[in-house]
Amino acid sequence: MSLASLLLQKNTELVQVQTKEHQPDLTQRLCNTSEEYMALMKETYFEAYYDRIQPFTFQSELFRLDTTIAEALRRCHRNQYAKDHSLHVEGADWTNDPDLLLLATQIDEAQTKLGCEGLFIRLSSRYIPQLTTPYSTKTTTNLRSPKDAALSDKGRDIYHESMTKLADIDHGLGIENPDIQNRKVHALYIAGTKALRALNGHECVHLLVQSDRIQADIDEALANPEEEFNVVVREFADFEVELELRAFVYNGKVTSVTQYNEYCFFPRLLKNRELISNVIKEFVNGDFVKLVGIEHFVLDLILISDTPDEGPYSNLRLWVVEVNPFAEFAGAGMFSWEVKEDKEVLMGKREFEFRLKEDYPVNALNSIAGEWKDFVLQN
Predict the structure, then answer these.
(1) Alpha-carbon span 344 to 352, nearest angstrom
(2) pLDDT in tens, 112-150
């Protein structure tokens, strides 16, 4: 083969490679190596983008999780709330622990800076554990909240109030035969969200100590003391949980939206599908994408009415909860990364779609498990 022919072949191969880069092969996974995973995670650290999108998200204060406080959180959880009751210590009370009292004080100081009444507490980390299966859809993100601590007396009261409220909403919509299982799952969703509202540092620490969910993060913090682990104190916003959504952004445009809780049917959400689609597209496709500085991402968001007295769907404003990597380990909601047609929608190769349940699920209670299902059955 002549040198000219060889160069022509190489040039042709290079053009083919460049073409493939601009027209991604949808049969290939978006994250295939640990290096790709690390890069995707780093660009969506909460600390990395918070300042850029501050006007559109809930005000937050961060401070370093001290090792001694992390040890106290783990110790007091085991002594009082661990599922393994053999670890419990009789008479244990975290309010007697000086390190956790210090944590409560730090949170109170953050609340003063924020100037808000309700708080939402979570952990955040720049530490990324070694990825053993980069294409897994179950990979942990770098943000955690004590959601499981909502299964308490406070959560139980909210659950019962929500069941009554949802019955009134069904009646107002003229629904003659509502699905009670769906209503119970919806009420659980409300309880699991609203019970996380804390009024002060003491209540925030109580949620953290109760939570089994954050213990893996505490263990990571203690095993990697040189890494940055933070406590994030955010203002808590009251909202209709059916308006918690997930949007997919590819090449700087919203390609699709899914309801965040994929197990419930929300009649009002279905009724307002077009309205919500327009609100999200107008917000994200505008200046927001430029502020984030990322071309592809998954956006968790909440829509809140500026005029709630006129109804929860009046004058909706979009609030950003968090930004996630655009890859298979980010939950796809009612889409699936494994279905070619769905992936084409997510990557903007098909028409925009807002996917949501359009009817009551069959046996809705089967969609929840463990202590969450026990909570519903016992209430």
Answers:
(1) 10
(2) 999 999 999 998 875 555 555 544 444 444 557 888 877
